[in-house]
Amino acid sequence: MVEFNPDGSIKLPGQLGRKHEEDKEKLRRQRCIKIKRDVISFTAPKKCVLHITLSEAFSDNRFIENIYNYFKEKATVPNKIKKINEKQFEVEIGTEFKRCSECNSLINRYREFLDGSIIEEKGSCTFEGRKRNFCYEDYF
């Protein structure tokens, strides 16, 4: 059964509501970042954007651009970073065969730097990641 808030919006189920509140609290008090993946162009040439938001606990945001610059040196995909404000950045990932794997590579660099303190939202990204159960019938 679907429940509604007083403003008419749909109430989140218990577990999702708790997770959403925990993430909000984490962004207020802990050193973490929130990364939302979005595909902004579904037709060729495809483009993706990573929306990066820093928590309020950060006073210095230089690590975002430093890690991005290391990523850019090795990346084969066209990419660029845009600073929205002191707490928000956008990284645009262009069309390339390895677009999704390099996007994940950048996210993993941030995850490693922050010791896993990342809130990740899938957004409109369709990438499913590596399949755990490899089966030849699925590929050949």
Provide structural commentary.
With 140 residues, this protein is of the alpha+beta class. The protein has four helices and five strands; from the N terminus they run αββαββαβα. It has helices spanning 14-29, 62-74, 99-113, 136-139; strands at 33-41, 47-54, 79-83, 88-93, 118-121. The protein has a five-stranded mixed beta sheet with strand order 3-4-2-1-5, with helices on one face.
**Oligomeric state:** single chain
Shape: globular
Which band does the percent of strand residues land in? 15-25%
Low-confidence stretches: none
Characterize the largest beta sheet: strand count, sense, and whether it forms a barrel. Answer: 5 strands, mixed
Q: Which structural category do the helix and sheet elements fall into?
A: alpha+beta
Order of helices and strands: HEEHEEHEH
Q: Helix fraction?
A: 25-40%
Major sheet: order of its strands? 3-4-2-1-5
Return the average pLDDT rounded to an integer: 85
Report the span from N to C terminus.
43 Å
Number of strands: 5
H/I helix tally: 4
Rg, Cα atoms, Å: 17 Å
Question: Summarize this, please?
Answer:
The chain is of the alpha+beta class and 140 residues long. It contains four helices and five strands; from the N terminus they run αββαββαβα.
